[in-house]
Specification:
Blueprint (H helix, E strand, L loop, with lengths): L13 H5 L5 H5 L1 H4 L1 H6 L2 E4 L4 E4 L2 H9 L4 E2 L12 H9 L15 H9 L5 H4 L3 H15 L4 E3 H6 L1 H11 L3 H8 L6 H5 L4 H28 L4 H11 L6 H32 L1 H9 L4 H11 L5 E6 L3 E3 L2 E3 L4 E5 H4 L35 H18 L4 E2 L20 E3 L10
Parallel strand pairs: 2-8
Antiparallel strand pairs: 1-2, 3-5, 4-10, 5-8, 6-7, 9-10
Length: 427
């Protein structure tokens, strides 16, 4: 810890001392844990993390939008520094993380984004609707007559992985092989794993890094359509703007972003909609309500609870000076529950008029480039499940098993049950 750029040396307040983004209370309800901070100490230094923590909507939004005072360069750094053994294991795979869209600064960021964004534009993503719906239907067919399912294992882990690979441009015959390497990066970037667990995670990261390079090489040879093939075209046209390392990082990080975050966002939505039976039944009766319900679920329990920036200059926020060079934790989940922006934010309201003001996809120049795809997948999955399993209910007393990490937020299990004889649509 470097006292010159942090709050080390200042006595920690009660709120700062009790803040534990790896603990049970945070996993169950991050926004509730930070309610007192939003009201009394909206910016505080966490000695546990060596980060300044920002909790109010307006401040999180400002950090996202101001690219002159705040750098995105630390967005993908492990929040728990890697030990020597984990670093050595990554080196065995020649792992070479480099800047991608989420952790690079101007002026190169916007130059790259403009060249790489077209395949993920809403009008392009919309062309995948039929294929995604067929995919979702085929997975539902496999369990709809069974009467029980774990929606994570049986649907939500698989479908976004396959869609992510399709969008990245991975050929169909490689999808089945590649999706088994789409490991959970949440613990690598956002967790507090033991040294042994770090080595295990590093090995998985290394395997996916190696396969990502192989997939890029194949696309270079054989061509294709999608996000990475488009980037390969840019690489050939302007190799300084998009080099080989950038392509490999794109394949690796792009799929993780398209996969795990969408899995978690949809799982969170289903957990809370099924817990609030009136809302679920409204959606079953009127599918036109689903798009706004998606936005409200993203606000209510985002799959990415926080993100990071680095202060480039001394910055005063809410009367607190964050020194230049400091690392900053922007708690999106807390901002999405800011009482000054959202009425009764602790309530899931599928009719909320300003639900789309949420911060789940970031803001400004670094707003999530994959947001149209995530929205489309969530809408289709909700449409198909409300149509085919309106009588589905959560299994009582289950442990949702949230992974203990600071940001990537979603249940590991989501067990449901229903009476197959009451199914309105056959498999």
């Amino acid at each position: 810890m470097d006292p010159s750029r942090s709050g080390a040396g200042c006595p920690a307040s009660r709120i700062a001392a009790e803040f534990d983004p790896f603990g049970d209370a945070y996993q169950e309800d991050p926004a509730a844990l930070l309610a007192a901070a939003r009201a009394e100490e909206p910016v505080f230094y966490s000695p546990e993390l060596d980060h300044w923590v920002v909790t109010r909507y307006r401040d999180v939004k400002e950090f996202f939008r101001d690219t002159k005072r705040f750098s995105a360069s630390n967005a993908l750094e492990p929040i728990t520094p890697l030990g020597e053994k984990a670093r050595a294991r990554l080196a065995e795979y020649d792992f070479a993380p480099g800047p991608v869209l989420v952790n690079e600064d101007e002026p190169v960021h916007m130059r790259r984004r403009k060249r790489l964004a077209p395949p993920l534009a809403a009008e392009e993503v919309a062309k995948l609707e039929g294929r995604i719906r067929d995919l979702v239907s085929s997975y539902v067919d496999a369990f709809v007559a069974r009467g029980t399912a774990d929606l994570i294992d049986d649907l939500l882990w698989e479908v976004p992985a396959i869609v992510g690979l399709l969008v990245c441009g991975v050929p169909d015959e490689d999808i089945d092989r590649a999706r088994h390497y789409t490991i959970k990066m949440g613990m690598f970037t956002w967790g507090k794993p033991t040294e042994e667990h770090q080595v295990e995670i590093a090995d998985q990261v290394g395997q996916w890094w190696r396969l990502s390079g192989q997939l890029v090489d194949r696309l270079k040879r054989e061509g294709g359509q999608g996000w990475v093939p488009t980037a390969i075209d840019v690489h050939r046209d302007d190799p300084e703007l998009v080099d080989d390392n950038h392509l490999q990082n794109m394949m690796m990080s792009g799929l993780v972003a398209a996969h795990e975050t969408t899995t978690n966002a949809t799982a969170n939505a289903l957990r809370f909609l099924l817990s609030q039976r009136d809302s679920w039944e409204e959606l079953c009766a009127d599918p036109a309500l689903i798009p706004n319900a998606v936005e409200e679920c993203l606000r209510f329990r985002a799959s990415v609870q926080c993100w990071r920036r680095k202060a480039l200059v001394d910055v005063e926020v809410e009367g607190v000076t964050i020194p230049a060079g400091s690392r900053v934790l922007l708690v999106i989940g807390s901002g999405n529950h800011d009482e000054t922006v959202f009425d009764n934010p602790q309530e899931l309201d599928i009719h909320r008029p300003n639900a789309k003001r949420h911060l789940a996809f970031g803001m400004g120049a670094h707003a999530c480039i994959g947001a149209p795809l995530a929205r489309l997948e969530m809408r289709i999955i909700l449409e198909e499940l409300t149509r085919r399993l309106p009588h589905m209910r959560l299994v009582d007393g289950q442990d949702f098993g949230y992974l203990h990490n600071a940001s990537f937020h979603g249940p590991r299990h989501l067990r449901v049950e229903w009476e197959p004889a009451d199914n309105p649509v056959d498999a």
